[in-house]
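Example 4.3 (complexes with small molecules)
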Amino acid sequence: MESPASATVSAGPAPGPTPTDLLSRLRSRGAGDPVTHVERVPARAGVPAPWPPWTPPELRDAFTRRGVTAPWRHQAEAANLAYDGGHVVVATGTASGKSMAYQLPALATLLADPRATALYLAPTKALAADQLRAVAALELEGVRPACYDGDTPRAEREWIRRHSRFVLTNPDMLHHGILPGHAQWSGFLRRLAYVVIDECHTYRGVFGSHVAHVLRRLRRQCARFGATPVFVLASATSGDPATAAGRLTGLPVAAVTEDASPRGGVTFALWEPPLLPPDSGSAPPVPPQPTGDHDDLHQVRRSALRETADLLADTVAEGVRTLAFVRSRKGAEVVAANARRALDDAVPGLGDRVAAYRGGYLREERRELERALLHGDLLGLASTNALELGVDLIGLDAVLICGYPGTRASLWQQAGRAGRSGQEALAVLVARDDPLDTYLVHHPEAIFGAPVEATVLDPANPYVLAPQLACAAVEAPLTPADLALFGDGAKEAIDELVAAGALRQRPTGWYWRHRERPEVDLRGEGGAPVCVVESATGRLLGTVDGGSSHFLLHPGAVYLHQGVSYVVDDLDLADGCALVHAEEPDWSTHARDVTDLSVVSVRSYVDAGPVGMFLGEVDVTSQVVSYQRRRIATGEVIDTRPLDLPTRELRTVAVWFTLSPQSLASAGVQPADVPGALHAAEHAAIGLLPLMATCDRWDIGGLSTAVHPDTEAPTVFVYDGHPGGAGFAERAYGTASAWLRATRDAIAECGCEAGCPSCVQSPKCGNGNNPLSKPDAVRVLDVVLANLPA
Ligand SMILES: [Zn+2]
Ligand SMILES: [Zn+2]
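Answer. The structure with zinc ion bound is encoded below.
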């Protein structure tokens, strides 16, 4: 979300060192040079466009009063497409003014036709509230914008349904409230001219697949009332936004991707922390702090947190206003505390100019910290992510990013906080010990070149489609005409609902048979979430999705919650609840599981001589059977304890490749090393998949084996961790050679000797990262790549 008037910049303190000077001072303080690449992102002048000729004068005046004298070219282009009746997605950078692209056509239409209405969807209530403020500030006659969400008082709801012409809500409310109550909304839906979907790249995976069907249900209700609204979507920059928006809405969508808003120049450095001396790996200089990251693995590099803390201290000592992004809250506090200590050692009192920005703070406290940083009273701030920060916190002199934030969209959202027009700024990405981070700091083209990562969703997932069809049937009986709307698999899903007794077929369509509505959660995961409850106080600490609960909440598990350590006393699966007590033992716990996988069907395959590449359905059976306790300080294994947990089953989609034993032998992989080679390749491949699709490695599982009964060959499987699949394996199959090429390079380019968390070790391995063979993993992938068509 951005405000249209993003050209205003705050006045900061006097300019400090240039980014180039600053960077050369930072990189020269250690022994080797940690910088792997420097990219100069040039300043860009904005390209304004004339107001579209259809813009009503009062709308233009309203924008002018808000400081907008003309739209940028991308805003006008998207607005013109939408006003002409085309569905459009605008996918441009942070603070490029995407909101104006939909406000212009929607509000112009609302002013021209006093009956027309518009519906705005945001992924969060907070964003909808921000947009409400922006639209209300335009003070347009008769639009009466209003938020309609779970917080809206009952008394106001009817007024909004009857009188508001610009309703702001979220997909959950559309699913649970508006669509089931379509009769009460008929007046609004009948006149619906625009549907706006903001931050549409957040609708990915299983959640995105559900939202795709909620939008189809919305289109179906509109069609029943004779309305065919235009969809306008706003997205962060991503690969192929038109295709993703088309999958989300089920409509042909045109993309506007050329950002014409102005920006300051940024010097962007990629930074790889140095390897530790060989004998210091198991004896860190300070006690490690639990950060929720993989501090349990054997460290061979200096940690990204320590590196970021040092960089923050150095930039603050130079008088440079710096924002550091750290992935976990605890991590942000560690970075701020270490930077403060280093500064106080140098100049007592200087540490006071650095702070951590914590989620627990009140809104006013956070805004005060932001103000202090903007005015230079505070010089350094460590924060978890950009979403919590106020939109005005831009124009900083330096941004440090500790660990790749998962997507290029988030990376640019964070880096976009640096630089104001007319002044250069510095951004530094500090790699964590993770295969994807390692790959990126050695492949700057994957960051600065054309984006390849796409927003992935799979509306054909039967575990999503069937419950959504049930919801649709409650809203109005399904007819054969609806089959095309809901897409591939709709007929099969309806047949299954009929067979299960949920739908009844009559001459006029398929009818929902029950009195109650189906319970469908858009964010549905594998199994109901498990509540984590502190026994002594009864306080609910949080929830863990059902799929991870056996791993994270087994009896004896050390569970971290916002940096505080708890030990699990009991996991009650029937009640969906884990009882814990606060305790900080000096060990961490690591669950082991045994996983079995069988192939159900093959959807598609590539026969490449000694190599086969497959996409299909699989059944995954897994059981958490034991856990290890390891000393935090040294990683030493204390003991392994058995667990008694039930097996779990998952039918999902997988991508897998096979190799002939002969091809492995001729590549020099000894038979005894095949399991370690495949296992290492599997870990790294899972770590690199987020390069191709917006998922994280926790969405995906894997299995490798020297001979699999269904393939009768050495095989590596990578599967979606969600029932029915979420589109990740499918994307991996579609980009197999690029994905495995990146995997191969990440392993080969890691400077470690025998494998480390930056290449082939995985923090979520069920086998304790054993066996692993780094050099043989490269050989395996070389064989695959040599045979697979590009
Ligand atoms: Zn390594
Ligand atoms: Zn493993």
